[in-house]
Design brief:
Number of strands: 0
Number of domains: 2
Number of helices: 9
Structural class: mainly alpha
Radius of gyration: 20 Å
Largest sheet: none
């Protein structure tokens, strides 16, 4: 490997570390970002080394991402869709979304109450509006219906 290639791999590593210092990134997401600035084979080589050194971890990324989006009131359907778009393996996503499965019903209820209050919708038009809102936030119908009931 020439000195120029070693410098280039170091440049890729430095750029990747700059991104990782700001927040966790998935392997595929980092590769996409860096491939615009560096040759793809050098990006993959540098990221593979970072993964082996546990400086980049898809597990950590998914865990942080799910927690962050959950704290902002997003449901599992939307979070899964966003992670798939970022190139994360669906099995890995399932591990983190299923672990917290019992929290989603309560989160849907909290989000609904924050936006619309604790009482059940007055009529079908209002029920449809609240249902659309929660669905756009990424909650499934099995999570939305109990949230709309207005019961504790």
């Amino acid at each position: 490997m020439s000195a120029e290639a070693i410098q280039t791999v170091k440049d890729v590593r430095r750029a990747a570390m700059d991104l990782l210092a700001r927040r966790e990134h998935g392997f595929t997401e980092l590769a996409r970002k860096l491939s615009g600035r560096f040759p793809r084979e050098l990006v993959i080589e540098a990221l593979t080394r970072l993964r082996e050194e546990r400086l980049q971890s898809d597990d950590r990324f998914v865990e942080c991402y799910v927690y962050s989006r959950q704290q902002r009131g997003y449901g599992p359907v939307r979070i899964k869709s966003e992670l798939l778009q970022k190139g994360v393996d669906s099995e890995l996503i399932g591990q983190y979304l299923l672990e917290q499965d019992d929290h989603w019903d309560e989160l849907a209820k909290e989000v609904k109450e924050r936006k619309f209050g604790a009482s059940a919708p007055r009529d079908n038009k209002e029920r449809a509006r609240q249902t659309r809102f929660l669905a756009q936030r990424g909650f499934s119908m099995s999570q939305i219906y109990p949230a709309l009931s207005g019961k504790n």
